[in-house]
Amino acid sequence: MAKLKPAFIKPHGTVTAANSSFLTDGASAVLIMSEEKALAMGFKPKAYLRDFVYVSQDPKDQLLLGPTYATPTVLQRAGLSLSDIDVFEFHEAFAGQIMANLKAMDSDWFAQTYMGRKSKVGTPPLDKFNLWGGSLSLGHPFGATGCRLVTTVAHRLKKEGGQYGLVAACAAGGQGHAMVIEAYPQ
């Protein structure tokens, strides 16, 4: 792995094929509708979409930090805290991107300097984070990764007996998003 060439900043970059999500084939479809409509059509819902948010930040030095910016906003809108979340699924574009988000989320300095917050966001507990594999291990099928993240949260909530899950992802050009998913009562 040490012999792999950097993908971006040559010759000293650290992002290589070994620590990047690989592009895979994939397709996805998700039915989103009201609970009332789903039940009337004979469908059993898997989960509720409680809230979502899209964010944007300076792509020059904060390109892949969308999860850091989106997480506290969606939690506040949903009336929840990090400790209320039972399942976390973050898109892993690169290993370094995940590490940068976890470090930024755990930094009072970053929160105060870049986010205008008084204190850090806090980091998701790793025993609840991407437990079934993320984009680094499963791949990143453009157009399907978001659905994979959401359905993984819904299935994990059911299997693990949790109530709330959080999905977060970075996107091209300094974009990002997060959403809160709530388990559907069995």
Automatic annotation (TrEMBL):
InterPro entries: Thiolase (IPR002155), Thiolase-like (IPR016039), Thiolase_AS (IPR020610), Thiolase_C (IPR020617), Thiolase_CS (IPR020613), Thiolase_N (IPR020616)
Domain Thiolase N-terminal: 1-36
Subcellular compartments: Mitochondrion
UniProt KW keywords: Acyltransferase, Fatty acid metabolism, Lipid metabolism, Mitochondrion, Transferase
EC top class, as a word: transferase
Pathway: Lipid metabolism; fatty acid beta-oxidation
Swiss-Prot/TrEMBL catalytic activity: butanoyl-CoA + acetyl-CoA = 3-oxohexanoyl-CoA + CoA; octanoyl-CoA + acetyl-CoA = 3-oxodecanoyl-CoA + CoA; an acyl-CoA + acetyl-CoA = a 3-oxoacyl-CoA + CoA; hexanoyl-CoA + acetyl-CoA = 3-oxooctanoyl-CoA + CoA
Main location: mitochondrion
Domain of life according to the entry: Eukaryota
Record Pfam families: Thiolase_C, Thiolase_N
Enzyme Commission code: 2.3.1.155, 2.3.1.16
Domain Thiolase C-terminal: 44-182
Keyword Amino-acid biosynthesis: no
Family note: Belongs to the thiolase-like superfamily. Thiolase family.
Subunit record text: Heterotetramer of 2 alpha/HADHA and 2 beta/HADHB subunits; forms the mitochondrial trifunctional enzyme. Also purified as higher order heterooligomers including a 4 alpha/HADHA and 4 beta/HADHB heterooligomer which physiological significance remains unclear. The mitochondrial trifunctional enzyme interacts with MTLN. Interacts with RSAD2/viperin.
Function description: Mitochondrial trifunctional enzyme catalyzes the last three of the four reactions of the mitochondrial beta-oxidation pathway. The mitochondrial beta-oxidation pathway is the major energy-producing process in tissues and is performed through four consecutive reactions breaking down fatty acids into acetyl-CoA. Among the enzymes involved in this pathway, the trifunctional enzyme exhibits specificity for long-chain fatty acids.
Protein name as it appears in the record: Trifunctional enzyme subunit beta, mitochondrial
